[in-house]
Write a structure and sequence with these properties.
Radius of gyration of chain A: 20 Å
CATH architecture of chain A: Orthogonal Bundle
Strand content of chain A: under 5%
Number of strands of chain A: 2
Order of helices and strands of chain A: HHHHEEHHHHHHHHHHHH
Structural class of chain A: mainly alpha
CATH topology of chain A: Farnesyl Diphosphate Synthase
Number of domains of chain A: 1
Largest sheet of chain A: 2 strands, antiparallel
Oligomer: homodimer
Chain lengths: ~350, ~350
Amino acid sequence: MAPVPSVDPDLASPKPSLDALFDLLGPDLVRVNRLIIERMHSPVALIPQLAGHIVSAGGKRLRPLLTLGAARLCGYRGERHIALAAAVEFIHTATLLHDDVVDASELRRGRDTANAVWGNKPAVLVGDFLFARSFELMVEDGSLRVLEILSRAAAVIAEGEVAQLITANDTATTEAAYLAVIEAKTAALFAAAARIGAVIATRPEAEEAALERFGRNLGIAYQLIDDMLDFSAEVEELGKSVGDDFRDGKITLPVLIAFARGDADERAFWRRTLEAGKQEAGDLDRAIRLVERRGALAETLARARRYAGDAAAALASFPDGKLRRALAEATVFTTERSF
Amino acid sequence: MAPVPSVDPDLASPKPSLDALFDLLGPDLVRVNRLIIERMHSPVALIPQLAGHIVSAGGKRLRPLLTLGAARLCGYRGERHIALAAAVEFIHTATLLHDDVVDASELRRGRDTANAVWGNKPAVLVGDFLFARSFELMVEDGSLRVLEILSRAAAVIAEGEVAQLITANDTATTEAAYLAVIEAKTAALFAAAARIGAVIATRPEAEEAALERFGRNLGIAYQLIDDMLDFSAEVEELGKSVGDDFRDGKITLPVLIAFARGDADERAFWRRTLEAGKQEAGDLDRAIRLVERRGALAETLARARRYAGDAAAALASFPDGKLRRALAEATVFTTERSF
């Protein structure tokens, strides 16, 4: 077994980034982006307008990068990873559109959300369109195994989103329940995106499983950091309003830790703001102070780093080289990012 | 070519119904219903609760019946039609859930809608779940051709729903645009549901195309009657509130005809109520009187009967027998129904 790749952020690169990954996969990603534009076309003009708004909003394209990177890491030399990476991004985009409706969000990555611009109705329906289009892309690819992996992931994502609604406003949510939610709503698609790279390269099950593990752990780390940033970063850096989760009454790890470590007065604060949903001016500032003071952000970051480490470790059986190092750096980037 | 099946409602049966179809396909439909219940299960209990609310609301199961009937008409003797009929119904149910959110409907088939009971959020997400589950069922079936037909239909449905939003509130909508909308939002799934029956029976393309034509024309007829009933039937009969489309500003054929035939005063009425969206007490009653007086309901019914006739005619190449007669009767039922 090859040694576990490790990237010490203090030594390897002062500021871990996705640059190496973009460099290696850039030409593929350009083709994915072109296909995305092409395949979100519809004679109903509002569909590409609305879909284009969110697709062009400048996401990191992390999930399609996983498919591209996993395929290349498995030595894949064909063309199929392009369309499947686009299919993965369509599922993600459909989920974002529906999420923003569900959360009644008005900003995403610093721009108005689709539902804020066009209303909820087309946002729901264009999400449905992209979801269907994603399956059309997979069907054209023709792998039932890929279809199986991604249709399962899509069902699990929806289950995770519903489970999240149920745990919302409930400070008695366990960490296990929280983890189950983020594993389903976020990590399942990361895992599937990476796994299908091995599938199209017709690699053995062990490699599929390793890439699945890579994606899953990376996805959990990614979501933990997302939940942390909601209590810490500036709107300008994050490109989304800080405090969204707090206002929605979402129960995330920073809250669970701060609640568990808080005194009676602090618990009463969390119960009022998140369970009773009674929030007033200054509450978000206080929430941010509390998660900070109780070490909840540091603890969330530490956990995220552990998952990111497990993600990097899952790459151990693949040949060392630029791509593996770039993927390992992506796991570090995930936990050090501020957006 | 066998003679075109024809069922004269005045001769064959005083009151056309789906009874013959239910008699012939009842055992299959029982298995479909059982599978639907089984496969809407999820560890997230709210999902089967919410999905069960709409699934058990007593729809006519027309779309799965088309799959079952088409398969049997093609001499199919296997088991695959059961799961695929369930997949079709899941797509339909997902669409209903999202429609009710989009239309902010509070009643469907005389019961509270899922969004009225649980709110919009879980209704959107459970729709997504059912959609994903539908693809899981198709993947288990393993036919890429079926996946192609139904993923295409799902994309077209979403396009039709978005197009409907665009034509809403616009009395200058053409009949062609209206027809394109209902063909996409309703008839595409009818067509696909019937076509896949021929696919699994491995019948030649001509039979696939004939069943597609049967489903498409039946779907158009069905939607025309739906749009007519919104201006005519009683809530109790229809199981849904009369006037929903009017209140939503939807531009349906009865409105287009009444508008085209109306005088200046009537056109001003339609513009105020549907374009400007300014409705007051008594407006729905006046709308119902106007579509009636201008013969718009009779004309819509006549058109629906023509499509239903085309649907029945599409069955001509299949062997005569109980099943073909029951399917032909279903086309008549579609236009004579009051619910």
